[in-house]
């Protein structure tokens, strides 16, 4: 009886997944139904010679790297500042969660207004420090910076709260012993805090990386993938391919590649996470 | 109801007195405008019912998928008359435009029978038609058993009507004899010039009449707080279709050419490169700083807020920005615009909000009952004179004195702009299944040109090469 729900869930997950694989192996454009046929791996082979695909791969990786790296640094920094359990720190940590409760698409629209070169408050602030005519998401040179900034605003609290929970759950004895031995705070952080916090960092990084590499809302709401092809990440490209171009085959193939990348990354992280856990238990 | 008022309404509907005369006589009888409107609608419904069995589908319900739009507001304001006329019920879902077409694609591609009819643009039918999701409406239009004798299909503006008909052959002429009528025009937008008359006067700038003058005027009007010309710039097909393609077509330029049944790119000719260069320079010098993210919404609201001096875009944006609580309300004016100094008249590319019938509808005749009423002359006139149903697609509505007077009194130059542009107003794109792919790429190329990432001539050669490759891969080139 217990296996029936599990079976149903498996079917619920597997049916769309297998359908996507099936579509990705077809030449299938809704506006040319007469040309629909199995082309097996041709959609994937076409990617090899398609500069658009390599641009998508590169842009997606860059976006994921910048956002996760910066959010991790900021999240860790804020968590360390809020580590002590005080009323003020607890209040601040709750307040810092606010952006996380904002829908990313709404956050993007809000930032779009704030970064408007004509009347945006951030553009105005830049003029006060002598930076004129900064075009944020509208210019190729600053588009990536702009969307990464929005992503950081929305998701840094997520990493912060995970790492804060990790920091507060660390055992006190090693730190007390280090303090007695006169180990400087800086050394304590690198030798004790960071290694003990690594499983939490890995978990937070994995969650954010998976989400970041699949980013859609912020980029689409702010730039629709532009200017030019500057921000055509996987999800934006697949969305446009399906809903605008009705090129189901290419869209599905793009999403399968994205799935393969996320699967690969998840595997690496989970293996490392398990290895760290075993090490912590003294099993290796 | 008094006999005199009824007689007057009847005389008008029989064409014995003009609309102006009718209003004058109603006034003499002490009838207010709203009472007169109610009376007229009632009589119009009776007149419709007299010639056709509108009650044939009484008791049935049609369900519509609609985009949030003033055309829908006008339809809903008049829907009780439809219900009274037919005895039918109408259900509907309304979505904002951002998600509307995704919803349509999802509903149709899944074969759902939830919706009987829906709003669409003509470009979208180049996907929906070949995919087998919508009906060719010719069998209904041409069947006197199903279409009321007052429908007057020939009353539709020719260019608009033809733009909604395609034979399904890639590159096939719109409105050809073998074309299928994939949708019925409901309301449409020409792309022309709307400008802030106060700003032009203050700067001593004359209303531009061609591309050279537009570039100069836009530069002269650009200052610290205002940019000269608003045009769309987002990475979307919608950046290409309004002012840009209208001007481009005015130079006789095409997106694609059809030779021996094969399509090929035509946007890298010398004339095209010259036009692109002018367009790009204009945006660089006098466009919005965040042009690359501008959709119709930003183009319209910036004009209404006094942030731009002119727009070369959908005329109805200028219409709506000249009213309500917009900062520039009452200061906007309109002009027909022929980009090519040697052209005889403007050639605006058009957007047509249309009604299409789902192939999966369970009662298509009932759906057609609604569609012919909603696109009929009576509702068209009601919407145009009582609501903001601009631009109407029927010649009879444009010929209506009251409508013209209403527009001219508060929208200076709007009627003249329409009259001058209407003969050349149509879809100037080549109909083919890759429309959205190719135009989105065109917009992305334009963004690169404006950002100086690629020179115009090189960018267009690259675009043409990419377009040809895609056409070939799709078996079209």
Question: What features would you highlight for this structure?
Answer:
heterodimer, A: 284 residues, mainly alpha, MetI-like fold, two-stranded antiparallel sheet, 73% helix, B: 477 residues, alpha/beta, D-Maltodextrin-Binding Protein, domain 2, 2 domains, eight-stranded mixed sheet, two-stranded antiparallel ribbon, 12 strands, 14% strand, globular
Q: Care to give the gist of this entry?
A:
The complex is a heterodimer of chains A (284) and B (477). By secondary structure, chain A is mainly alpha-helical.
Describe what this molecule looks like in 3D.
The complex is a heterodimer of chains A (284) and B (477). Chain A is mainly α. Chain A has one domain (56-280): MetI-like (MetI-like fold, Orthogonal Bundle), CATH 1.10.3720. Chain A is built from twelve helices and two strands. A two-stranded antiparallel ribbon of chain A has the order 1-2. Chain A is globular and about 80 Å long. The model of chain A has no long low-confidence stretch (mean pLDDT 93). Chain B is α/β, with parallel strands linked by helices and 477 residues long. Chain B has two domains: 3-188 and 352-419, D-Maltodextrin-Binding Protein, domain 2; 190-349 and 427-473, Periplasmic binding protein-like II (D-Maltodextrin-Binding Protein, domain 2). Chain B is 48% helix and 14% strand. Chain B is built from 23 helices and twelve strands. In chain B, strands 1, 2, 3, 6, 7, 10, 11 and 12 form an eight-stranded mixed sheet that branches. In chain B, strands 4-5 form a two-stranded antiparallel sheet. In chain B, strand 8 (256-259) and strand 9 form a beta hairpin. In chain B, helix 15 crosses helix 16 (315-321). Chain B is globular and about 70 Å long.
**Largest sheet geometry of chain A:** 2 strands, antiparallel
How many β strands of chain A by DSSP? Answer: 2
Summed over residues and divided by their number, the pLDDT of chain A gives a mean of: 93
The radius of gyration computed from the alpha-carbon positions of chain B, rounded to a whole number of angstroms, is 23 Å
Please count the helical segments of chain B. Answer: 23
User: What is the assigned CATH homologous superfamily of chain A?
Assistant: MetI-like
């Amino acid at each position: 009886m217990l296996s029936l729900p599990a079976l149903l869930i498996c079917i619920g997950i597997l049916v769309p997944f297998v359908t996507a694989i099936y579509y990705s192996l077809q030449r299938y454009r809704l506006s040319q139904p007469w040309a629909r046929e199995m082309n097996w791996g041709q959609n994937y082979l076409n990617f090899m010679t398609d500069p658009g695909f390599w641009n998508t791969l590169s842009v997606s990786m860059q976006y994921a790297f910048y956002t996760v790296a910066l959010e991790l640094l900021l999240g860790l920094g804020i968590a360390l500042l809020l580590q002590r359990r005080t009323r003020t720190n607890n209040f601040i940590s709750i307040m810092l969660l606010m952006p996380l409760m904002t829908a990313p698409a709404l956050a993007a629209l809000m930032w779009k207004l704030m970064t408007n070169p004509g009347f945006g408050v951030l553009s105005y602030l830049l003029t006060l420090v002598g930076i004129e005519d900064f075009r944020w998401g509208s210019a190729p040179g600053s588009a990536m910076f702009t969307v990464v900034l929005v992503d950081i605003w929305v998701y840094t609290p997520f990493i912060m709260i995970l790492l804060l929970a990790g920091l507060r759950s660390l055992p006190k004895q090693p730190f007390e012993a280090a303090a007695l031995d006169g180990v400087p705070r800086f050394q304590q952080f690198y030798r004790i805090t960071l290694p003990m916090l690594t499983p939490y960092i890995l978990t937070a990084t994995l969650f954010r990386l998976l989400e970041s590499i699949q980013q859609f809302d912020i980029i689409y709401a702010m730039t629709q993938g532009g200017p030019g092809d500057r921000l055509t990440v996987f999800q934006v490209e697949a969305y446009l391919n399906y809903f605008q171009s009705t090129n189901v085959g290419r869209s599905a193939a793009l999403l399968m590649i994205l799935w393969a990348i996320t699967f690969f990354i998840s595997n690496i992280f989970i293996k490392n996470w398990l290895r760290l856990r075993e090490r912590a238990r003294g099993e290796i | 109801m008094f006999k005199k008022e009824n007689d007057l309404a009847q005389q008008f509907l029989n064409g014995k007195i003009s609309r102006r005369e009718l209003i004058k006589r109603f006034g003499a009888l002490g009838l207010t405008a709203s009472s007169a409107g109610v009376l007229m609608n009632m009589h119009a419904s009776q007149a419709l019912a007299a010639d056709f069995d509108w009650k044939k589908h009484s008791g049935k319900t049609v369900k519509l998928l609609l985009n949030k739009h003033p055309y829908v507001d006008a339809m809903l304001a008049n829907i009780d008359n439809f219900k009274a006329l037919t005895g039918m019920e109408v259900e509907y879902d309304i979505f904002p435009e951002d998600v509307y077409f995704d919803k349509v694609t999802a509903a149709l591609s899944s074969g759902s029978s939830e919706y009987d009819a829906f709003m669409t643009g003509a470009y979208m039918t180049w996907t929906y038609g070949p995919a087998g999701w919508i009906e060719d409406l010719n069998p209904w239009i041409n069947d006197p058993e199903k279409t009321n004798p007052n429908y007057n299909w020939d009353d539709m503006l020719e260019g608009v009507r033809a733009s909604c008909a395609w034979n399904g052959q890639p590159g096939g002429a719109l409105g050809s004899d073998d074309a299928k009528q994939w949708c019925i025009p409901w309301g449409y937008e020409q792309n022309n010039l709307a400008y802030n008359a106060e700003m032009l006067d203050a700067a001593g700038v004359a209303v531009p009449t061609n591309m050279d003058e537009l570039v100069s005027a836009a530069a002269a009007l650009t200052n610290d707080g205002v940019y000269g010309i608003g045009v769309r710039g987002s990475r979307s097909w919608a950046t290409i279709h309004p002012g840009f393609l209208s001007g481009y077509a005015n130079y006789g330029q095409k997106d694609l050419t059809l030779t021996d049944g094969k399509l090929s790119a035509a946007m890298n000719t010398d004339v095209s490169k010259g036009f692109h260069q002018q367009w790009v320079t204009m945006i660089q010098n006098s466009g919005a700083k965040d042009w690359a993210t501008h959709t119709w919404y930003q183009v319209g609201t910036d004009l209404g807020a006094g942030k731009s001096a002119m727009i070369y875009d959908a005329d109805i944006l200028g219409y709506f920005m000249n009213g309500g609580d917009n900062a520039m309300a009452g200061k906007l004016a309109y002009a027909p615009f022929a980009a090519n100094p040697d052209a005889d008249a403007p050639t605006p590319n058009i957007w047509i909000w249309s009604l299409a019938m789902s192939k999966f509808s369970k009662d298509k005749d009932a759906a057609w009952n609604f569609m012919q009423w909603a696109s009929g002359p009576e509702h068209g006139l009601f919407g145009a004179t009582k609501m903001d149903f601009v631009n109407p697609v029927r010649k009879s509505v444009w010929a209506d004195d009251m409508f013209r007077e209403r527009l001219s009194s508060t929208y200076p130059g709007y009627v003249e702009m329409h009259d001058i542009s209407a003969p050349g107003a149509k879809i100037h794109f080549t109909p083919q299944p890759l429309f959205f792919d190719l135009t989105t790429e065109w917009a992305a190329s334009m963004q690169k040109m404006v950002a100086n990432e690629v020179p115009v001539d090189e960018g267009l050669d690259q675009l043409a090469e990419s377009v040809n490759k895609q056409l070939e891969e799709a078996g079209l080139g």
